[in-house]
Each structure stands twice: as structure tokens, then as C-alpha cells.
Amino acid sequence: MIKECMDNKIKRIAPPEFWRFVFIIYVCFFHFEEDVYDGACILANAGYLGVDFFLLISGFAVSYSYRRKPIESPLRYAFNKAKKIYPDFLFTIIVMFLLWLIYESTDLLSVLNHIYECRLQYFLVNAFIWTRFETGPLWFLSYWLVGIIVLAFVLKKKSLFVVGGFAISFMSWHFYYRGLLQDDLVVPQFLWSVRLIRCVSEVIIGAMAYELTERLKCIQLSSLGKIVFSAFEILVILYVMTIMSHSGRNRADYFVCVGFVVIIIMSFWRQTWVSKLLDNSCSQFLGTLSLPIYLYHPFCIRLSDIYCHNNSHKFVMYIALFGGIIITSFLFHLFVERYFSRLLKAICHKMIIRA
Fold it and tell me: Is 39 left (phi over 0), alpha (psi -120 to 50) or beta?
């Protein structure tokens, strides 16, 4: 029976993909509120926590794929991940600098100087060296890659729960002192290391959540059990969305992250009403757009800030932003990823590798 259950879950699972899309949209709205409405809370005061969901579900996905195909080389595995996102990431940086040059009151020399100052981030190595300069909301991608590498080593050494204990302890400490770890109260050299440890910890906790799910997935619920767990899942979802909309940067963040873990486990388990409703190809499609949405949303938000700063029709702006981000991400994902990736590979082969 266990083998049958595993065979049925080889492809990507739709409900967790849908929630990844939802919480990435929260991140977009959070940055939108910061830039266009000067931090005014409308829909996503704690939308920054969407990044935490992305890290948790990344750890979950790595552990899920490891069960089916063990990772032979953690560094090679991380390199393949970076190779998939790097063309889109680099294209985003190019577009943002062009936008800055065209619309901002600055000269080419200032842009080139800023490009030089941000050089560590273009190679996704700024997780190891502190820098004053960050390319907006894209800073965490290098930390995410470090988390993937660490998790791959942990899975290979079969020490997930030992390392996971330290990860849970760190996250508990971190959220307990959440108010002491703000950007303006911590020296930057310490802040970047806290960010790195936090990202790695969340990736590992996501992997632990998958191991828990492995022990649940073949348990069949009765009709009463489905009612109880469905009600519990709905309450958790409502709690998480309420806190993300109206709270922010306090100890409630800890319980939101616990809620994320519950949502991931329940949606993978797929025995509740919500999960069955979301188990479709549309959810899978939205999930595939989540990373392009994260990469390209600064472009849409920057245009909104230029043309519609503090626009009074706020909900119309939210709807327009949502539609613009989806369309832009889909088109860039469809065309840019394919052709820019080919161009980048051709340049690398011409300059670095002699056939």
C-alpha cells in the first residue's frame, strides 16, 4: 500500500503549488504598499512572510524529490537550481537598471557605479559577504541557494532531525526576539548572518514537514475525520491570511510560519475539502508562475510607483497590479526564459568553453 501511495505522488502536487502562488502574491502586494502607498497597510502588512512560505515549501520539495531520486552531489544539485533561475534573474536586473536609467533623474555614470556596487548579487554569492547594496526584493535568492546546498548535505548524511532540532530552536529564538532584529536596530554585518541562518533553518524545517507528511499520507480518514481536518485547515488558512493582512513584524509571525507548515502538510495530504478543491491543473499552472512573478514583480511595481504614486483608487490599483504581474510574468516566462537562456548559454560557451 505504501508503494502504491508513493507511485501516485511522483508528479508535482497541485494544492501546495496554489498556496505558493497565493503567498508570492502577498509579497508583491507588500512591496506595492511600501513603494506606491508609502507603507500604508491595505491587504498585506505582513506580506514579507510570503518569502518564509517559499523557503519552507522549497525544503519540502527538495526532500520530496530526494525520496524518489537521491542527490548524488549537493553542489551539483544547487548548481542545476541556479542554472534554471539565473537567466530570468539576470534579465530582471537588466530591465530594472534600464528602467532606473530611463525614468530616474540620474546619469549613466551613477547607474554603472551602482551596478559595480551590486556585483556580488549578480553571481548569487552575497549570502557569504555583507554588502550595503541590495537589488530590492531579490536579495534572498542567494540565501535560498545556500539553504538548498545545506539541506542536500543534511539529507545525504541522514541527519535531518538532528540539524532540524537546531533549526527549530533558532527560529523560536529569532521570533521571540523579533522586535530586536529589525534592520534599523541591528548592525548590518550581524543582520545578514541572521537572514542566512533563518533561510537555511526554514528550508530544513520544510524538509522535516515532508518527513512528517510521509507518515500521514497513507492514513485514510473517515467522514467525520475529513470534516474535523477540513474545518481545522480552513481555520488555519483564515488565521494566516488575517495576520498577514493586518499585523506585521511581531511575535505573531512565528505562529504564521507554523500555520504555513500546517497548510503545506494538509495540502500535500489531499484528504480535506480545500485540498481536493485545489487539486487541478490550474493550481499547478499558477504554481509554475510563482518564481517568475517574484522575479518580475519589481518591474510592474516600479512602473506603478512612477505613474500612480498614492493613487486614490486603491483597490482598482490592486486589481490592475495583480493582472499586470500575471500577464507580465507569463509572457516573460514564456519568451524570455527560453531565448535569453539560449543567448546566455551561447555567450558562456563562446567565451569560457571551447567546443
Answer: left
The rounded distance, in Å, linking the Cα atoms of 223 and 193 is: 48
Which amino acid is it at 243?
I
3-state secondary structure of 1: coil
DSSP at 312: S
20, 54 Cβ separation under 8 angstroms:
yes
One-character DSSP codes across 178-228:
GGG--TTTS-HHHHHHHHHHHHHHHHHHHHHHHHHHHTTTTPPP-HHHHHH
Of 11, 5, 4, 18, which Cα lies nearest the Cα of 266?
18
pLDDT, one tens digit for every residue, the chain (355 residues): 333 333 434 467 899 999 999 999 999 999 999 888 888 888 888 898 999 999 999 999 999 888 888 887 888 888 888 878 887 888 888 887 787 777 766 677 777 777 777 777 777 777 766 655 556 667 778 889 899 999 999 998 889 989 999 999 988 888 777 544 454 444 555 566 778 888 999 999 999 999 989 888 788 888 898 899 999 999 999 999 999 988 777 778 889 999 999 999 999 888 889 998 999 999 999 998 998 899 888 888 888 888 888 888 888 899 999 999 999 888 887 877 777 777 777 776 666 555 4
CA angle, residues 125, 210, 330, in degrees to nearest 5: 60
Alpha carbons 241 and 246: distance in angstroms, whole number: 9
If you ran DSSP here, which 8-state letter would residue 336 be given? I
Q: Which three cell numbers stand for residue 77?
A: 544539485
Judge contact between 114 and 96, C-beta under 8 A: no
Angle at 160 between CA 157 and CA 161, to 5 degrees: 135
Residues 49 and 244: their CA atoms lie apart, in Å, by: 7
For the beta carbon of residue 310, count every other beta carbon within 10 angstroms. Answer: 11
Using alpha carbons, select from 33, 57, 37 the residue that is nearest to residue 45. 33
CA torsion through residues 281, 287, 288, 290, sign: positive
- Torsion angles phi and psi, residue 10, rounded to 5: -75, -40
